[in-house]
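Chain A, query sequence.
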Amino acid sequence: METPSVDEFGSRRSTVYGPNGAVATSQPLAAQAGLRTLQDGGNAFDAAVSTAAALNVTEPTSTGLGGDVFMLYKSADGDVGAMRACGGAPAGATRETVRDALADEQDVDPEDAEMPMTGAHAVTVPGTARGWEATVEEFGRGTLADALQPAIEYATEGYPVTEVIASAWEHGEELFESEHARDHYLVDGERAPETGETVRLQNLGESMQAIAEEGADVVYEGYIAEAIAEEVQANGGFMTVDDLADFEVEYPDPVSTTYGDAEVYELPPNNQGLIALEALNIAEELGAREHDAGSAARVHYLAEAMKLAFHDGHRYITDPDFEDIPPLASDSWAKQRAETVGEEANDDVSFGVPDANAEDADTVLLCVGDDEGNVVSYINSRFAGFGSGLVAGETGIALQNRGASFSLDDDHPNRLEPKKKPFHTLIPGILKRGDDDWSAFGVMGGYMQPQGHLQTLVHMLDDGKTLQEALDEPRWRYREDGRLAVEARMPTEVQNGLIRRGHDLEVLPPIMFGGAQVVRNEDGTLSGATEPRKDGTVTSY
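Chain A, predicted structure.
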């Protein structure tokens, strides 16, 4: 492990190291919850659930029990695996029934109805509670009750809101319409909390306590299930308790590709992991690493690779139980696609038939490593902010709007069908650099996620940057409208070089490029990094 010269050190913070455990996530109190679980004898899987549950309380603007959760891991015994806790559309949600319902709400003919971003028809079955339970029971050392305890304490005893989260919370002032939703999440039912103001989410804490005592069954078969179904139906949706009771956690095989001497693992469809893998393969086929790090030429070829991967991913990725999906991560596919890339930006490539709603979605990601050799990448979200705007009765559980990703077009690959899972943006990542060198990583933010994976991996693997340096590099992102967005701190000469190559550039604030975390176990030494785009925190012991 090479030690950089202090005089040459250019990162905004340094990589964190620890002998026994490391937790990286977007909120400091949540990171402490995970570390507490490790110190109390839990392993990385237990700590992942503790951190995720704490984020549900301390960063409720991005995640929660009303959403979905996914995991990639490398276990202490060497297994690389995945967990998917993602629900589908209600059994009664056919395109015909939803079109008819939306026609009245949108005051249009049924054939002109469109999937809404919020409301009851955007709600899919939440997978989080079952996912947390499965993580602890299948892979952890402790109990679900132990893992949830820090979150319950934050919810019932209160915590001060950080400035980034306070700003995001303001969205709830317009989103929440029902009196009970506003009472649960707005101060005096009227306003978002201010920076530093102490917040208590008493009803959410009580729901978590019920899960700790009764298990996830209370969410899928008990009083919380009844509250979810009643809330959705009262607002015109079709979800039933049977839809919730039928939900099961899945353990799909990860998909992977090699990049240089490393192997990268992602989640298979219905998640967008294949987009990241295809982009990596195309970038390697194009020889992107042969161009200087951070140069306009390097960014150009990486962005063109990402354009093609998005085009293919949004054309083909959906629930594999409903559609066949071509081998997007194969070398032969990348070779064919790379032949369409030149020295100028290709303005004929689009996302195919994507839904623009995922462009700037909100998500939380966390990475954990322990002294046994487990590394876990764990990602949890309601999709966009507080989700659908619905809160299930008196449970304090805000319901996701992942169903907004469905299409009502009969020919769209991601068309709405009963029990179908929508195209999912959430993708944790695992990186293998050697038999004793594994990292859990990820980037948050809708369509930014595979783009962040590509850029972070290139910085680490091609440029030899430390974990923290890799996350600190200025980012770019290919936008739904075809433009290439860059951070303002990207060097002027690079921006000018991209414009000369035909890219339609726009400058966006740092928050638009996603937060990121990574935890590495290299020959038994744990390290971690995060970034200040949110309230990123790495803690170790």
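The longest strand covers residues 362-370. The radius of gyration is 22 Å.
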